[in-house]
Amino acid sequence: MAARQLASALARPADAPPTSRGTAIAAFRRHLARIQQSVRDAFEAHELDGIGAAQQLAALTDGLLAALHDFTLQDALAEEIALAKRAAEAVRGVGAGGTPEGFTLSIVATGGYGRGTLAPFSDIDLLFLTDEEPEPAILSAVEFMLYFLWDLGLRVGHATRSASQCVAEAAADTTVRTTLLDARRIVGDAALFASFQARFILASVESGAGNFITDKQQERTLRHQRYGESPFLVEPNIKEGRGGLRDMQTLYWLCRYTLGTHTFPDLARAGAGRQALLTEQEAKRASRSWDFLWTVRFHLHYVAGRAEERLTFDMQPVVGARMGYTQHGRQVGVERFMRHYFLTAREVMRFTHILEPQVLRQALGVPATAPETDEALRRAGFMIADGAIMPQPDVSFDRDPIMMLRLLAAARDRKLPIHPLAMHLLIRWERRAASLRDNPEAMAILLELVCGERPVRKPRPDRSAELRRDEIIRNDPPRSGARWLHVLNETGLLGRLIPPWSRIVGQMQFDTYHVFTVDEHTIEAVRILGALEAGKLAEETPVANDLVEDLQSRRALYVATLLHDIAKGRGGDHSELGSEMALEICPALGLSAEETETVSWLVLHHLLLSQTAFRRDIDDPKTILDLADTIQSPERLRLLLILTVVDMRAVSSKVWNAWKATLLRELYARVAEVLAGGLATTERDVRVARGKEAAAILLEEEGLTPDEIEDFLRLGYGGYWLSFDPETHARHARMIRDSMQRNAALTVETQPLPARAVTEVTIYTADHAGLFSRIAGALAVAGASIVDARIHTMTNGMALDTFWVQDASEDTFDAPHRLARLSVLVEQALSGTIDLDEEIARSTVSPIGRRMRAIHVPPRVVIDNRASNAYTVIEVNGRDRPGLLHDVTAAMSQQGMQIASAHITTYGVRAVDVFYVKDLFGLKIGSERKLEELRASLVAVLTRAEDAIARDSAAPARKRSAV
User: Which pTM value belongs to this model?
Assistant: First the structure.
């Protein structure tokens, strides 16, 4: 129908003048819009799947190009070509009925378009195939068509070459050879195209498959390095990322070049001189993966309105909903969709391990047993080929599945890589590993693989080393647990041996905090633990680095790391569920009753230290006592600290910083002191007295008089002396003395602390309601992010408030001009010379991008009167934004709350801020009515911000619909 409409629009009487270019462009634009819309309508109505839509769009584009070819040669440039033909006939002596040389042209589709597939906004790759020396008129025709296509708004990748040039370019450049593999004539001289094809095939056969295969493998390696080695990144590139379309295309190219096959089902059938390389089931899985990825790609292009290949957070829920993924139980639709994607990416990786070795064997022959294969290895049933281990031909994983794990054990012990053909067999027979769950030998091997070999401690890495920290950590030794966990996970063996593991493969959390899926995060945690044991993290985690040297429960720690998130995605508290599951899994792995209990306890409490350090006041004696009562054992405390560090560090290197390390280190020291039977946290008066004594000694050394020292010691209440070290007390004394001598109403002191990645801001001024909120607002305007705060009212009615702040990159806020501006802004905020709300709105304008808007952060306020004996603890959960702390604390001030300390934590776009507060009388808040009013006020603050983001997100949609 669309083609007929185009032909009708271009039709003209024989004696009419040629159709103008403007008229033709208008007709072609209407035609292009019709064919694109027809494919989109059929696809979105689920009449076409992804690959079907890609094929139909390619076929309809063929028709448009054929029509443009005819219009160019027969209408637009007809006179120019006719004149050129007559001139050529006169020069060359070709008769009226002949075909003059130099006037042949063939339009050829190449690349993905040549395979007959085209995405909505992808480039159209074209080869204009000409004679060896094309006439200027033909080159004019090519130029006319290209400009015409560009005027239609199409993106065209193009080349104009003769057959000889094509063959020469393909010989010199593997990328060109790849694009020409699927060259397909759309319109034009068929004989010219047939001649080119014959020459190209002959040249490819003569050049052999070895170099082509090597180049494509190297190209894939570089692409993975650029787009991410892991297929489980939470915002994957579906085309270029590992496990994406390009990986499948690479397999297709290898098979196409080496075997001459055109589709994956072809590989399930025997061909000339070869056996079937895939089973029917494997071929079907490959086709399903291919179609799923194409379907996702089509939706992604249509939603984005451009050639978008990355599944970003804002795209994931939309694409998932369009594909019919809805909420099932506690799992939302977007997480179900992304799990399907990640399982497909994993399937592509497995498919690569299955197919590629067989293609190599077909192209290069069966690998021979290497002479370094010793007798012991032969007796075990294995051999070395191409420097890698593989089973001997008479070994059957189907008949004897224990050999799969023995192969891995031999590879680990001998530090050998696994041969690709062995990986192929492991994946093909992984389901047989389920029969080994009750096999003590199999589970013992699994436990050894998970724990790895205790590494030799390395000296601290040179700071000048060119390798980045992550690259140092990821350089896994051959016997590391992470290396073998990757193999076990990719082959599917781990899910067969530990069934609950299969539930977390590809499982993601729809937030910006977690970088990996649950299974990949867990393997990363094991990797970090191995790096910690090897001494590679000595600088960033010194306490954990020292503790890990003397581990008494190494196996329990590794298994706890493996199982700490095993129950995620099941609903309920994953720590509690995982703890119960550990009681079943650990004995099966061969752990003792004591080790099993330790693993279960660690899984249950693996979030305890981080939640306490970042959300609770560790200067509150009850916080430390509660922790000590729960942990009870110094060994458990050591194990829990190490597990906490590797868990946090495995989320992302950006999550871990020096400030968090400091908080965990201080918390560990205080709990360890109690567990070791030292000074009890209940002996508060003794600790206060010792704090004063230490401060007095320092101040006396600095030359302060006894009266000045005594005046300072009378200023602080007990909580103040427990909150800082003697050096800080001495600094505060100097600051207060100078302020009193100058009779200053406000003193602001800043001190960068690079070792902690924070800057300490100390403010000494008259205490009054709303002071915290005003300071927080000033710091927000200055661009400083508060990570912790201590609020102390002194006995003279003055406030000594301390804030620890970072810059936008979570590092020390230390630029001199920014520190000077910070001090000025605090003074202006407290004097009332600036409108804080207006300044925050103006200076922190950073519209939340679509990616972040897609993450819903439901406002939540939790009030706890049991966490502290002296304070009411308020936990505020909401979307992080500039000025949030100012707005929240202003609401508290309006409700008559006095804030003693604040603890600020950010998880991606979610802020978790915890405040220790009292009422105006210095008491905990006991009135239920008052607590409810406070909760409602805080929820209202959080809701207003979330509603504003929702309105901003809806505005572009309304604008688009209006257009």
Answer: 0.80
